[in-house]
Amino acid sequence: MRQRIETIAALPLDFNCLKEHLNIEHDFDDRRIAATAWAAIGHIEDETNRTFAPATYTETLAGFPCKITLDYPPVTTLESITYYDSDNELVTIDTDDLYQVHGTQKSDVYHKTAWPATFNRPDAVTITWNAGETRLPAQIEQAVKLLVAAWNENREAEITGTIATQMGLGLDRVLLKWRVRPYA
Questions:
Q1: What are the C-alpha distances in Å from 174 to residues 11, 33, 135, 139, 177?
Q2: What ranges do the domains of the chain cover?
Q3: In the chain, which end has fewer C-beta atoms inside a 10 angstrom radius, N or C?
């Protein structure tokens, strides 16, 4: 089971530039705008299967596969791999015994010799890694601005008396090249 266990608290974009994009000069809406920006980043991460705000992930496995695939690129560091050995004792693998192959879609981790035997339990292996950007790429920052502006203008679920249109080419085009495609 994979889960995001921590996200860094600072927005990975210039908040003043976001407010300028929204034509907002006062500061009494800052908390709402920041929350909307975090929601936009989360939406973009879900749409692209990538991590843009720095985060820590953990995944548990019942045993070692041939390779361990770390999703939600870009992977910045492999923090640790722990496992329960055949005596059901918790052991940490030395990262010098591993090598990683980083790609734009995923990162794979291999053992230099062979993965050790594990005790038969559903959480036999735990992998912890960090992913994300310290600063959003320019295209993703633009996508965040598009979403925040749209959500700022239309804060309610229903709007009457207007013609609804999608952001269309704007958001879809910006996110297209960033999407992680399914792989085997």
A1: 20, 21, 17, 6, 7
A2: 10-52+136-176, 55-131
A3: C
